[in-house]
Design goal:
The protein is α+β, with helices and mostly antiparallel strands. The protein has one domain: Sandwich (Jelly Rolls). Helices cover 27% and strands 38% of the residues. The protein has 3 helices and 8 strands; from the N terminus they run E-E-H-E-E-H-H-E-E-E-E. The strands form 2 sheets. The protein has a 5-stranded antiparallel sheet, covered by helices on one side. A 3-stranded antiparallel sheet has the order 2-7-4, with helices on both faces. Strand 5 and strand 6 form a beta hairpin.
């Protein structure tokens, strides 16, 4: 298993980790298989979305702030209840096929670490499984 260390700079942030994941796939030497990506955090998640236009990230962040506001009288009183909800909306893991030694993506897709309770030091865990 490989680990990617991140330092987030904002409370809510989407960080493009596509290149870091692609380097791990390349380093593995696996031509065909599966890339598992996991966030071991309860207030952050992962998603795949467009990475060509940065306004998509801004739209996602603004929509999250509207859908799940920071202080909305939640029962969880640590001040980050909204972050737990947002991370559940994204999920904690992704699975991506590896074909020809590369991540098998659609044309505009990229991988994002979705911070909900930053700024913090975070990790993303990556496991490559080779086809039998």
């Amino acid at each position: 298993m490989e680990k990617i260390s991140l330092k987030t700079g904002k409370r809510i942030e989407l960080i493009d980790i596509t290149d870091a994941i692609a380097k791990i796939v390349l380093k593995s030497g696996v031509d065909g298989g599966i890339c598992f990506i996991f966030s071991p955090h309860t207030t952050a998640g992962l998603t795949i979305n467009e990475n060509a236009d940065p306004s998509v990230r801004r739209d996602i962040i603004n929509s999250l702030k509207n859908l799940v506001p920071e202080n909305a009288g939640y029962a969880h009183t640590e001040g980050n209840a909204d972050s737990h909800i947002k991370s559940s909306m994204f999920g904690s893991s992704l699975t991506i096929f590896i074909e020809g030694g590369q991540l098998a993506f659609g044309t505009w897709q990229g991988i994002y670490f979705c911070e909900g309770d930053g700024p913090r030091s975070r990790e993303v865990w990556v496991k490559i499984i080779k086809n039998a």
